Structure formats: structure tokens, C-alpha cells
Amino acid sequence: MRYLPKSPSDREAMLADIGAKSIDDLFATVPAEYRLSRDLNVPRQHGEQEVIEHFKAFADKNALGYASFLGAGAYRHYRPVLIDTVVSRGEFLTSYTPYQPEIAQGTLQALFEFQTMICELTGMEISNASMYDGSTGAAEAVMMAVRVTGRNGAVVARTVHPEYREVLTTYAQHQSIPKTEVDYDPATGRVDLAKLDAAITDDTACVLIQSPNFFGTIEDVAAIADIAHKKGALLIVSIAEAVSLGIVKPPAEADIVAMEAQSFGVPVGYGGPYCGVIACKEKFLRQMPGRLAGETKDMDGKRGFVLTLSTREQHIRREKATSNICTNQSLVALMVTVFLTVYGKGLKELAEQNLAKAHYAAQTIGGSGKVLFGGAPRFNEFVYQGSRTSEEGNAALLQAKIVGGLPLEKFYPELGPNASLWCATELTTRAQIDAAAEVLK
Amino acid sequence: MGDKFVGTPKKASVHVNQNEDLIFEKSSPGKKAYRLSELDVPAVDAAALLGDAVRTDLGVMPELSEIEIVRHFTRLSTWNYAIDLGMFPLGSCTMKYNGRVNELVARLEGLADAHPYQPESLSQGVLEIMQVLSDSLLDITGMDSITLQPAAGAHGEFTGILLVRAYHESKGNPRKKILIPDSAHGTNPATAAVVGYQVQNLKSNAEGMVDLEELEKLVDEDTAALMLTNPSTIGVFESEIHKIADILHAKGALLYMDGANMNALVGKVRPGDFGVDVMHLNLHKTFSTPHGGGGPGSGPVACKKILEPFLPTPVLATKSNGTLTLDYNRPQSVGRVRAWYGNFGMFIRALAYILANGPDGLRQTTEDAVLNANYLRAKLEDVFDLPFKTASMHEVVFSDKLQAKNGVKTGDMGKRLLDYGFHAYTVSFPLIVAGAMMIEPTESESREELDLLIDALRQIAREAEENPELVKTAPHTTRLRRLDETTAARKPVLRWKAPVASTQLTPDTAAKEW
């Protein structure tokens, strides 16, 4: 029990100070029939070395040593060593939510820097200090739009990440927010603008799109914003691949950006923890969920930072609350901040490498079939339709220690069994791309 | 303040901690902290590929060298208080030691880089982690089924109440209201509202516990559930919990337990044994995953068999050949509450904690947490008012009643604790105690650290008596003094803006008319 800092004699002495005979006296208010009289059925106590061996054995059962072309909302990017150096510091890792700002300026200033960089990159005026992830962030953004507009419906592009749409369905259902999905143009893989226009009604609070979308293609944000705004609806843009912001124009025409920042230095980690964030126009500040770090001064006039506008928050408003977000993703936001500080303006060069790798992969791998949605620009993902089913193709690739693209039939049955979503990042090598193309030939 | 009493902190003294500007103020064009690998495919013309969508300007992103970045964040870190520096007596927050082996195993290759869409045949290791953790949490809670998907405690509450709603809907009527004691966490009523329920407040009795008579009066066929924190927010075990469960069940309502305070129960008492139908756990509290300055958390939801059909998809399952799989075919599911499977990195850390402790360690942990809280109570109840005399579990709630006579409030004494080298206790909670001082030491504190806290609080009580101005203007030794939160909220400054470049003024030579 190496984490417990009391000796047996400490315990004895403390019990005596309390005036208790034994530890059981302290549990006397628990009715006897509910006290557990056996050991818990959990793994036995392990030594530190055994704990490590245990997890190494788990890791060995996974895809160790495979090349991977998976993206679809979770992206492999190089993580500069500095990120873990910083977040491993106990003062960041083991600190609490900064409710006592005098002794939490490190976290607060870093969050303020995070908010600033998110604003610069997304073209929005304000940003919160993180949400759970991109999927819940998008759902919260829709609820926010309903509050802002006083309208009630959401029009959602089918090219938004399918799991994000599922999460939105769960949230929207109990807020009685009707949700309409709009199809894509089969030539471009982008939102069908005519269908979008027809889907927006007088009661539409917002249009939710993703760009680059689930197929990797970049939406015409300006045109979509025009259509939404003409009918009095807000435009929410979800961004799942944040590195795209290094080379793709920010969605400045949007009213709200609901982003997943995992690409900025957060491990893929089997889907979490990630870092959602909501950024928006300043006029929507009072309806924005989540925590905010704000600048102020102390009694001596020195610059400092505090969590601010907590009057919007659940612990003040209780049942009047419009969101129940409490713990957010502060440490993950710090990872993002370090990543963005290391790359800085160099985010452009990083994004260009992604663009080049994906372009080469689309040309090379696409040679054995076709690449869909060629009529629109894309970032680092593409939809490949091979001559055999994705399942067969992927099985052959696994033999060569390659994890192929994500089969799309489950989410988009109309694309058939041969379509899959491929991603290449700066970590994908030419040799891996060539090897995958060779197997699929 | 003359020669009035000024206490002497034994734990802390002022130390050098360096000034540091915002990262943007340190940036200069052309500096770089990165170098990419050489591009091994042909370079592309971004403008040609992206057309109108190409970005030309990134805005004011910082440009610095690696050493400057290391110093920046290291200096910022020295401005934070943290568990690694000492005790956080924050009630209901369970700030305990974070074992470092947890961090190491969470970063192992094969776990940290596992992709959520990689084939199941290559994911057996990650799925096994989820399985062993799930099984452990089920035995700890005494429940039947679990989802690890919720991203935080409040997200777990949301999921749990969705299960309640789906259960009642399956019986033909979702019901209308959720009962919430006035002592509840603020997230509880917010959650009920977000799931579309009316909140009905339930008054606590003189002991700070659920008033059974009041409960009996309020529960009816429209009640979907009671959301109960047990041990309660004043650190007291609801000793008539079985009666509470019976009253609810008799009317077809369910008992939801907020598991934020499970650190008082693990290995000693199981909620499933005393009638709880559904509950969430906070892995970042009870199971020692680090708080990280405010997240990430993880809020698994455990439930009884009757609620299992409604769990979010996917659900972890075992195939006939013994391999693990994710089951999406759940027609009665409430749907998804988050993309993929939850904060997997936190599952690793929580399981590493369970492995490091084992059944004997988990039980001893609970006993030590309760011992520590009672020790603080015994050593402080002669100087601070104790509004509820009921036996304490893992935390104790005092009030500022004795000190308020001199104008010293709970918040002031909390701020003064910073000068003594501690984080403040919880000051704004629970709402049923005016001027609450809510203290939860956890098992991680040695007798020596507890004695330092006791000594600090006793000195502060004396300062409040003999030198109240000193306490009312605390903290005095921190890097910054009290911050102006009112201005921060009235005129929000939420991002840095580059100062407007000063332009050279040129003399106006045009004819003047004045």
C-alpha cells in the first residue's frame, strides 16, 4: 500500500485522538447489513513492475508495428517531445480546476493563450477553454444556437462525422430539437446547396456542417453561410481535423465553430481523452457553454487571469442551467497550447506536408480503382473505391501489416461495399503508401 | 495591524518565482522550435489544389525557439499549487495522489496510439483493459452493467438520467420530474433539466439528510427518480438509505446515486446492495486519474439489470470464441453520448490504480480517508462551528459562524490558508450550510501534513479573533493578491490582441482653417 503515508502506529494514535476504539467505529452509521464482509473481487495487489508488465501485455495484443491509413475523426500526427515534458509537470498534471486564481495562474494563463490561438486559427472572436470532445461540442453548439435564435430546428449535413450526428441525436431528442439531415452532391461529396436551401425553415436555429467534411473534402463555407443567414439561421462549422487550419481558409463566415483539437498534439489513444472547443462571435458570449479564462488585475494592479462569467454556469443556475458541463479537458488544452507554440506559424508547413502526402496517396492508391468526389478540394483524406470490397482489400493489407482505410458502407450504404476512407498525414511514409498500393493493385 | 497576532506558517515561505509574459509577447518573426522530416513525396502547390479555399495568413501565432518554450511553460507551472506540492482540502473533489506508474503505462506504444477504428482483431488489448476495469467497477459498486462512455461526472449524470428516462418510456410513460435534495451538487439539477425533466427540490432534515416524511409526500407516479449523493455533501452516510430506496421503488421511481463521494465507500459498502438503481463514478476522483487543472475526467455509469438494455452504444461484449467485441446492435439503447468509447486514457490510469492497490489496498484507502476526516474534525471542532453533529465519513463540513462575528468569512479564511502553504477548502458548498468550510483530506495525507493543516487553521482562527483585517485581506504571500473578478466579468477580456502598431505621424502641410 505504497500510496498510503501512515504507519500502523499513526493510525492507532489518530484513532485514540478521535476517541474511537477501532476503524469500524467510524463506519457505525452504515447499517450492518450493508457493510461488505468480504474482499472485493478485483485483481490482487501488484508491484509497480508487475503493473507495467500487465499493461505491456495488453499493448502487445494490439496493432503494434502496423502502418495505418485510418483517420475519420482521429488523426495520427507527430507529437513534439515538449508536450509530455510540460504536461508531466506535477504542477499542471495534479492541480485542480483554477477556483483559487492566486495559486493557479499557470493553468489560467495557459488557458488564456489557448483561447487566443483558437480564435486566431478559426477566425472567431472568442473561444472557451475546452469541451469534452468534438462530438459533444457540436451537440452543445446546436443547443447554443437554439438559445441564441429562439428557434428550434437543426439542419445537419450528412457529411458531418456519423458518430457526431449520433451524439447530436441523443442530445436533441430530449431538448425536443427536430433534426433534418441534408444529402451531399455525389460529384463533390459536399453539401447539396439546393437541398440545403429547401431544408431550412422559419424555425431552423442552425445549419451544422463539417469542413473538411467526413469525406475529407472542403465545404464551400461562404456559400452555405449565405444560404443559412438569408433565412435567419446560424451556421455552425465542425472541424474534426484541426491541422487543416494551417492551409485551409478559416470558416470566418460561421457564427459558431465547434472544433475537435485532437490533431494538435493529443494522442489518438483509442478515442480519448480529446479536446473539444467552441469558438464563436462575441455577441453570443452569454450563451456559450463551458469555462472561460479572462484577464483582470489584482489588488496591486498586476495583470492576472481568472475563470470568469461563471454566472452562466450550472453551479449557479442549477435547474435553469442550459448545459451541465463541469469538468472540461484542461490538461488536453494545455497539450494543444504547447503543440501550437512549437509549430506557431509553421502550422502552415505541417499542413502542406499533409496535403502533399494525401495527394500522393490518392494518386498512387487510387490507381487501382478510383477516388470519389474529385470535384472538390480536399485536405488529408480521400474516399477510395477499389475493385474489390473494402473488407477483402483490408484483409490483404493486414497480411502486409498495413491497416487500410475505414470501410464506409456501414455509414453510407449508397457508396457500396468497395468504398473506404483513407487518410495520410506527415507521419505516413512514401514507402507505406507504395506498399499499400502494391497490395491493392 | 500593529502588534496583533500574526500566525507563522510552518509549511511555506515566499520563494522566487519568475515573471513571464504571455507567449505572444515573447514571439519574434522567424524563430522556429520545430523542423519537419524531409518530404519524401513530391511537393504540391497548395493554391492549385485548394483554389479559393487556400489560407494565406495564420494570424498572430507565436514564433519561438525550444528553450524559450520550455522556460515559458515551466515558469507558468511554478505559479500553480498542485497535489505534488501539498494537500488540497477541497471537499467533494477528492484530490488524492496520482501514482506515476499510471502515466507511464498510459503512454505505452500500442495503447497511446491505438486508433478507435482499428480492426477488433488488433484491439483485443484495449478491449481487455475496458473489460477488466468494467468488471472491477461492477464489483466495487455492486451493480450489474456499466458503460465507460461518459467523458466526465456531469456527463455520467446525463447518461444515467437518460437511462432512467428510457426505462420509464419503455413502460409507456417517461414521467415528469426528478427529485433533488437541496444539498445536491449543482450539476444534478442542471442534468435533470438538460434531459427535459422538471426539478423538484427536496428539503434536508435537521441532520442534513433526506427527510423521509417529506420524501414520502413528494414521490408520486410522476416521479422518475431521486438523485442522491451518498455519503451526502456534508459527508454523512444516509443511514436510512434502504427506506429511501423502498419509498421510491414502491411508486415505480428509481434511485440515482451521484458517486462523487465513493472514496468513502470503496471496499466497505456497495451502493448496489442498498437499493441504488443507477450511479456514476468519477475516475478522476476516486480512482486517482489526475485532475490536470480541470480535466480530463471520466464518468462511467453503472446500473442494475433492468436498465441494461438502454445503455449507450456500443456495449462491450464477448463473442462465442472468447474474443472481445463492441456490440452496436442494441435496439433499446439511448444512443451515443460521445464519439467512440469514452476517455480511454483515463481507463488505463484507473485500472493501474486498482492494480496497484488490490482489494486490501482499496479497503485500507477508504479506511484511511475516513480516519483522516474524523481526525481533522476531532482536532478542529473546538475552534470552528460544526453545523451538523452527525458522524462524518470522508469529509467534514464546518461553518464560519464563530469567525463571522468579527467580519471574517469562510472565503477569507480559505484565502489565508494559501499563505500557510495550502490550497483553500471548498467555500461555496453545500448550499444548506451558510459559510460552509467543506474539508476532504483523502487518504493521501500523512499525519504530519494533517497536523500542519490543523495548526494553520487554528492559527487562522486566532487571527480572525485578534487580527481580522489580516485575514480579510489575504492572501499576502502569493504571486498575485486578490483578483478583481467583477471587472473580469463586466468587461470580459478573453483573448490577447496585438497592440496597434504605432504609426509615424507626418506633419499636415495643408492649409489650416483655424
Please explain how this structure is put together:
- The complex is a heterodimer of chains A (441) and B (514).
- With 441 residues, chain A is an alpha/beta fold.
- Chain A has helices at residues 8-18, 48-60, 81-87, 90-93, 105-122, 134-149, 162-174, 193-199, 221-230, 314-317, 330-343, 347-365, 390-399, 430-440, and strands at 67-68, 126-127, 153-157, 179-182, 204-210, 234-239, 256-260, 276-280, 293-297, 303-307, 370-371, 381-385, 402-403, 406-407, 419-423.
- Chain A has a seven-stranded mixed beta sheet with strand order 2-8-7-6-5-3-4, with helices on both faces. In chain A, strands 11-12-15-14 form a four-stranded antiparallel beta sheet, covered by helices on one side.
- In chain A, strand 3 (153-157), helix 7 (162-174) and strand 4 (179-182) form a beta-alpha-beta unit.
- In chain A, helix 3 packs antiparallel against helix 11 (330-343) and helix 5 (105-122) packs across helix 11 (330-343).
- The longest helix of chain A has 19 residues, at 347-365.
- The model of chain A has no long low-confidence stretch (mean pLDDT 95).
- In chain B, helix 6 (187-194) links the parallel strand 2 (177-181) and strand 3.
- The termini of chain B are far apart.
- Chain B is 32% helix and 9% strand.
